[in-house]
Amino acid sequence: MKDFADFVNTMELMDYPPCESIYMWSDCRSMSRLDRFLSSPDWDAKYPEAREVMLPKYNSDHHAIMLECKEKVRKPSPFRFELMWLEEPNCLLNIKEWWNSFQVEGRASYKWWMKVKLLKDKLKVWNREEFGVVEDKIKLRVELIENLDKKKRVKTLWEMMN
């Protein structure tokens, strides 16, 4: 370990400060910060906004970490047909009704392409109205799990101290 510490000092590497928690791993008896990012002054100058982000843990006693280097630019996501739509009784009826309602002129390939495009737009609106923004619902559930995890860590830490 001393050799590693000497290397870090010689190369003037910086340890990013811990993100939300200083502990990335726990087994209810002890906690530890296993992972970390090191950066050089050159890297820091190039990516001044870089920060360590703790990812949620799902089936593990360990939180992975990620180095976020810049602001996220949100791009429109590609269209995907969701299997959950087929569980909705009116889905196939709506698709058939919408498809037949589109009046498109031109060659057969153009008509088909345009109808698919129009159907995609209808499905996006229907999805939002029928199911809401699923990503936001998932995000809320993940935050709930993370908060429960934090409460458990605090309780475990409290029990260790007493």
Structural class: mainly alpha
Q: Which radius of gyration do the C-alpha atoms yield?
A: 25 Å
As residue ranges, the low-confidence spans are none
Q: Looking across the biggest beta sheet, what order are the strands in?
A: 1-4
Total helical segments = 6
**Shape label:** elongated
Strand residue content? 5-15%
Describe the structure.
- InterPro entries: Endo/exonu/phosph_ase_sf.
- The protein has 162 residues and is mainly alpha-helical.
- The chain folds into two domains: 2-73, no CATH class; 83-131, no CATH class.
- It is 51% helix and 10% strand.
- It has six helices and six strands; from the N terminus they run αββββαββαααα.
- It has helices spanning 2-10, 41-46, 83-86, 91-101, 108-131, 134-161, and strands at 14-15, 25-26, 31-32, 38-39, 51-54, 65-68.
- It has a two-stranded antiparallel sheet.
- A hairpin with a 4-residue loop joins β2 and β3.
- The longest helix has 28 residues, at 134-161.
- The model has no long low-confidence stretch (mean pLDDT 80).
